[in-house]
Each structure stands twice: as structure tokens, then as C-alpha cells.
Amino acid sequence: MRARTRTVLLGAGALGAGALWWRAHPSACPYGQRFWVEAPHPLITRERLREALDPQPGQTALEVGPGTGYYSLATARLLEPGGTLHVLDVQQRMLDHTMRRAREAGVVNIEPRRGDATSLPYPDATFDAAYLVAVLGEVPEQDVALRELARVLKPGGRLVVGELLGDPHMVTTQALRARAPGAGLRFARRVGPPFGYFAVLGKAAAA
Fold it and tell me: Closest Cα partner for 65 from 42, 40, 36, 94?
């Protein structure tokens, strides 16, 4: 019994140490561990993302870090007819997986591109809306990424950031509130509880 308890404690300690290391060394979830991004997402559900993002037919939106497309297909459908969802990821295998799922589901309005959140390969004022879910904390230079996201949003556009407790890279609402002004964004509201939420940040409309 003591040996079993010792084993459990050692395992928990190893997991805790791993989580602390990962938080101190932010990086994208490897494709080989994609089950983490394919599992059900409690609290940060597709329906709550829809409420926060408010995608409209004909709009152009950006998803940074789509993983294997958990949110992508549903969001792309909400932009039809006439709208497009652009998905950007640092891993080509994640993009390929998302696009394979889109083809199988008959979703044709997703445009993939490989790139980095700190240097988005899009012109200024391209998107009506942008979102990233459990991704911002994986970016080593989060302030740079927020400025880039604000840059590619149209005046009056909205950015949605989703976060969930348990993710070693979780970004709190307090941190987002503090960083938003420096990126040219305004913290508008939160959808969901603090331990599993979507934050809506707005870009100021043109004068």
C-alpha cells in the first residue's frame, strides 16, 4: 500500500514538474499529442465561442492555432455564404489535419496558412474577427502576438481569446485586461466563468 501511495505521489510530482516546465517554456502542442486538442472542451464550447465571436455570413475571420479543427469547421459554416475562415498554425501537420476534416465534411471556405502569431502574414485591417483558444499562452511573446492580431483586425473588429483552467499556459482575464491597451485593444466582456472563459476584446473604430 505504501509503495502504491509512493508511486502515485511520484507520478503526481512528475506531472506537476512537467506542467511548471511547460509554463516556463511556452510552445505549441506537438502534433503527436493532438489528443489534447481533440478532446471535449468543457466550458470553452463551440456554442460559447459563437456567442463571444458573433460570426456573421459574409465576414472574414482568422483562427490562430486551429489544432485539428475543433472549432474551425463550425465557425466556417457560420460565415457562409460568402465568408471565409483563415486558419494559421506553426505546424503544417495540424493544418493538413484540419483541411482533411474540412474536405470530409464538405466545408470549402477555410484557407490555411503556415505562420507565426508574432508575425502574421496578412495585410493590415484584413479581418472582421479573430480568435485563438488555449493558444496565447503557448506564444513566447504574447504582447507581440496581441499587437499583430490588433493590426490585422479591421477598425471595430473583435478578438476572442479562450482559456481553460488546467492548461499549463492559461492566461487569466486579469492579464488580458492589463495587456489589451498596449496592443490597441479594449477588454469588452467575458463569456463563461474565470476558470473557463472566452474574452472579447475590441479594436477601436476609425475616427
Answer: 94
CB 125 within 8 A of CB 148: no
Residue whose entry in the numeric block shows the C-alpha cell 463550425: 74
Domain spanning 27-203: CATH 3.40.50.150: yes
- pLDDT tens, residue by residue, 2-33: 555 554 444 434 333 333 334 444 456 665 55
**Cβ–Cβ < 8 Å for 177, 187:** yes
Specify the residue for cell string 474577427. 129
Cell of 160: 476572442
CB 184 within 8 A of CB 147: yes
- In whole angstroms, what is the distance from residue 105 CA to residue 107 CA? 6
pTM over 0.70: yes
Q: What is the pLDDT averaged over residues 85-93?
A: 96
Instruction: Compute the average pLDDT of residues 25-42.
Output: 61
Long-range contacts of 171-179 (CB under 8 A, 24+ apart): 171/136, 171/137, 171/142, 173/197, 173/199, 176/201, 179/142, 179/143, 179/146
